[in-house]
Amino acid sequence: MEILVAIRSRVDGASLENVCIVVGGVPHAPQGAALINPGDTSSMIELPPEIAGTKTAVYFELAMGDQRIPLITDAVFDFTPGAVCVLTITDQTRAHNPPIEVEGAVARLTRSRPPVRK
Predict the structure, then answer these.
(1) How many structural domains are present in the chain?
(2) Which of 8, 26, 70, 94 is least surrounded by CB atoms within 10 angstroms?
(3) What counts of helices (H) and strands (E) characterise the chain?
(4) How many CA atoms lie within 13 A of 3 on its CB side?
(5) In sequence order, which residues have a C-beta less than 8 Å from that of residue 92 and are 6 or more positions away?
(6) This prediction's pTM
(7) Is 116 within a domain?
């Protein structure tokens, strides 16, 4: 009864990079490339059923050319076992600078992922 979550980008004029679902400070990333262009959706992120009911956040880096801004939403999402969800990041999504611990955890995770397609 794993939980499957994908992230869709509806941000105009920017891509999302290094997208992760953050559960208790631990990032969970989709398989494959770490870039989501406007209008695209990430591959599914598999979350263990044990996180059901735990509030989670979405970490992403807003990429505009060579500039990247690391952001994280508030921990407002929670899922039930067996859920299949698509979370959409838009121009109106509330997000702020991530804590250093989360940024470091995402950096460690993304070092082992394929390079970003440009």
Answers:
(1) 1
(2) 94
(3) 1, 9
(4) 22
(5) none
(6) 0.89
(7) no
